[in-house]
Amino acid sequence: MLKTGLIQQKNCADAEINKSKLAANIALCAEAGAELIVLQELHNSLYFCQTENTVLFDHAEPIPGSSTIFYSDLARKHGVVLVTSLFEKRSAGLYHNTSVVFEKDGSIAGKYRKMHIPDDPAYYEKFYFTPGDLGFVPIETSVGKLGVLICWDQWYPEAARLMALAGAELLIYPTAIGYESSDQEEEKIRQREAWTISQRAHAVANGIPVITVNRTGFEPDPSGHTRGISFWGNSFVAGPQGELLALASESEEVNLIVDIDLKRSESVRRWWPFLRDRRIDAYGELIKRFID
């Protein structure tokens, strides 16, 4: 069993407070026996993509940089594999939404740059982030091959499939998603359930577990153009048949500790041989934008 910690928390405008809370929760997860700990998307800050503001590029950091030193020290101190999510400054005018994975000794095991970048009201990520260029490559760690993807990536079955085909033993989604506060209650439920169903379907289709860590709490829109975002929490772990192994609440800050049986994927793939029966000879048109 792989004992895994998911940290779902509310964020404030002070990065040092957010990092201090994370450090305390990482310690608690490690004390509970977690070997793998996963943090939410852009966990150092508020979700700043609600507006387009060039000043906010000042918050981006090189990798390696101050945040990687901070989280490297925590991974080494607690002897855990740690999945983080950072605002990367690659060069002047070139920025990414990047997940950095640390090995138990504090070394960087690998990184993933978010591939699918949304551009919607309150989610103006295309203004800030260049699409990733590292591909869908699992990150090798002492606890297994981690298929790390980020938030908007979670809606795309192609991304999950390519990670699985490359040998990922887990799919991991650091996330920041919530309700626009003016949405009707019925619409909120539809959105949240579609989000959960999509990721559980990735577990089923690929026969591997899925870990999703979302933030919670309300964050106002600094521009006042929308009513802000209420992040819907509901961080969860699904097994290789899509079964829920753990589910957080919508509004509470929580550390989930979950035992994940990585060996079970082999049995599930024998029962449901989806990879065997794929018609790879007939899928060529998937690389087209649309089939006219």
Describe the overall structure.
- With 292 residues, this protein is of the alpha/beta class.
- It is built from five helices and 15 strands.
- The protein has helices at 15-31, 66-78, 157-165, 185-206, 264-271; strands at residues 2-8, 36-38, 81-91, 94-102, 108-113, 139-141, 144-148, 170-175, 178-180, 210-214, 216-219, 229-232, 236-238, 244-247, 254-260.
- The strands form three sheets. Strands 5-4-3-2-1-15 form a six-stranded mixed β-sheet. Strands 6-7-8-10-13-14 form a six-stranded mixed β-sheet, covered by helices on one side.
- Helix 3 runs parallel beside helix 4.
- The protein starts with a strand and ends in a 21-residue tail after the last helix.
- The model has no long low-confidence stretch (mean pLDDT 96).
Query: How would you spell out the order of helices and strands?
Result: EHEHEEEEEHEEHEEEEEEH
What is the CATH superfamily classification? Carbon-nitrogen hydrolase
Let me know the largest β-sheet: 6 strands, mixed
Structural domain count: 1
Major sheet strand order:
5-4-3-2-1-15
Q: What's the level 1 CATH class?
A: Alpha Beta
Q: What's this, in brief?
A:
The protein is of the alpha/beta class and about 290 residues long. The chain has five helices and 15 strands. The chain has one domain (about 1-275): Nitrilase/N-carbamoyl-D-aminoacid amidohydrolase, CATH 3.60.110.
